[in-house]
Specification:
Elements: E1 5-7, E2 10-17, E3 20-21, E4 25-27, E5 30-36, E6 39-40, E7 49-52, E8 55-62, E9 69-72, E10 82-86, H1 88-101, H2 116-119, E11 124-128, H3 138-149
Helix pairs in contact: 1-3
Length: 155
């Protein structure tokens, strides 16, 4: 949905799978349901997407990213396994460095999955712990859990 503007929209019981909101503006809106592999913004566009006053509290979010998106006053999902992350690009890089330094954490390089395209200008992210289960070993999941409680990454 390129260049779309949604104001006071309700995406109720939605099932968004591989949707993209490129250069979209979403204001004072609500998402309930499941968002799977949804992209809010893209790095190759001139104008960032914008989310302001968006409520995801009743949504489940998996594998979704927010590159080149200006975000303010967003309500995170209530699920305790889903976390709002500030400095998302740095968060992914830090976790990737830990994995590269210690093979007990995981054997998949995150840099190959979370490419610069997906983390460009990503100062915001919503991370679902379950998204990392296939990428990290148990000790890696422990490292992720510690990072998610670190106030440096909170939003």
């Amino acid at each position: 949905m390129d260049f779309a503007v949604f104001e006071r929209a309700s995406f109720l019981n939605c099932k968004l799978d591989r949707a993209e909101f490129r250069q979209a503006t979403i204001l004072q809106s609500k998402f309930t349901g499941k968002l799977d592999d949804v992209v809010f913004g893209r790095d190759y566009t001139d104008k960032p997407s914008r989310l302001q006053g968006v409520d995801f509290s009743k949504a489940t979010i998996n594998y979704s990213i927010f590159p080149n998106t200006q975000v303010s006053d967003v309500t995170a999902p209530e699920n305790p396994k889903i976390h709002v992350i500030s400095r998302y690009k740095d968060f992914i890089s830090d976790l990737d460095r830990a994995i590269q330094a210690n093979p007990d954490l995981g054997d998949v390089a995150l840099a190959g999955i979370f490419t610069s395209e997906y983390t460009a200008n990503s100062n915001f992210g919503i991370v679902n712990e379950d998204d990392f289960r296939e990428l990290l070993k148990p000790k890696g999941m422990e490292r992720l859990a510690l990072m998610l409680t670190d106030p440096r990454w909170g939003n």
